[in-house]
Amino acid sequence: LIRKLALMGGIPAVETLMARGVMGDSNPLLQGMLGMHGNYSSNMAMSETDLVISLGARFDDRVTGKLSEFAKYADVIHVDIDPANISKLVDVDYPIVGDITIVLEKIIAGLEDKIKPERYSDWRDVLNRYNELHPLTFQDSDDVIKPQWVVERVGELLGEKAIVTSDVGQHQMWTAQHYPFDRPRQWINSGGLGTMGFGFPAALGAKKGYPEKTVINFTGDGSILMNMQELVTASEYKIPVINIILNNHFLGMVRQWQSFFYDNRFAETDLSYQPNFKALAESCGGIGYDVTTKEEFDKALKDAIEKDRVTFINVAINRFENVLPMVPAGGALYNMILADQKEEK
Q1: C-alpha–C-alpha distance, residues 330 and 145, integer Å
Q2: 178 with 151: CB under 8 angstroms?
Q3: At the N or C end, where does the chain have fewer CB atoms within 10 A?
Q4: What share of the chain is helix, strand, coil (3-state, %, to 5)?
Q5: Domain with CATH 3.40.50.1220 in the chain
């Protein structure tokens, strides 16, 4: 229904972290993810729009940035089943409390033959130009594996056939940015709870619920340590989920903040001392791989899928890769640190 409403009006759409997949990755009306690590066109769309139709979003601080600057030129229509969320953080001009399916059915029926997509063609052109100016991209390398490449590669090889979970940190944001989600709930993460260790047990649950799907947990070398004992559970109950450890030997997101805002004063974020993840998986009845090249990654993923056992794929990635764009804490959405700005420095 959301896709139908957007298509009826030619209305550009953005997705929150928890809504990835609702519009579908290939949908030309989708600008991308919104918020602290949202892409440029999405954040600029929200900054310059004159009307926000919010469907079930709660306007958390990672989405809004500086509240006084958030969608300040826009009227806001907020649809939510919980009245406590209406105007809790963002002042709402048109509150609608109700089940989103019922509400959308009535909105679509009321707009039939009344809304004209061509009316918003100039607005779509502006946003397309923003995307051309600062697309969501990264500088790939053949010398070291980039984490964005890993996520995109899994998307190329598995796409809609996979259910994807994640823990919390840089790997979570890279996955949200670069995986081609095409349906709701294909992407499972802890969102605003920020729960390191969530991804592995969530993957076990997803695999039990959808045994025909390949279930991938993107995790980091910090997060996977929080619940690595689930290897035993997965082996005992024969739940073959694949854990892809994007290993930069850091608590990566905290390290990124320490680099950007604390002059590289790293405090308790260096994880150079680590377990042998390959041996750890094997000792618990699973399979382990150590990967340092793209060719090794492709081979490991293919082998893991064929062997159908719980797996750790430990991928050595660029240690100091950052998640960009980034809106600094307390900043407005339109004040982003962009990838090309960091490269210039």
Answers
A1: 32
A2: yes
A3: C
A4: 40, 15, 40
A5: 2-133
Q: What letter would DSSP give residue 54?
A: E
pLDDT in tens, 24-83: 999 999 999 999 999 999 999 999 999 999 999 999 999 999 999 999 999 999 999 999
* Integer CA distances (angstroms), 122 to 34, 119, 156, 179, 306, in order: 21, 8, 32, 29, 49
Cβ(6)–Cβ(59) under 8 Å?
no
Per residue in 203-224, pLDDT tens? 999 999 999 999 999 999 999 9
Q: Is the pTM of this model over 0.90?
A: yes
**CA-based Rg of the chain, rounded to a whole angstrom?**
21
Tokens of 43: 């954040």
First to last CA, the chain: 45
Residue 48: count other Cβ atoms within 10 Å of its Cβ: 16
For 15, the token pair is 């997705």
Residues 271, 251 contacting (CB under 8 angstroms): yes
2-133 adopts what CATH topology? Rossmann fold (3.40.50)
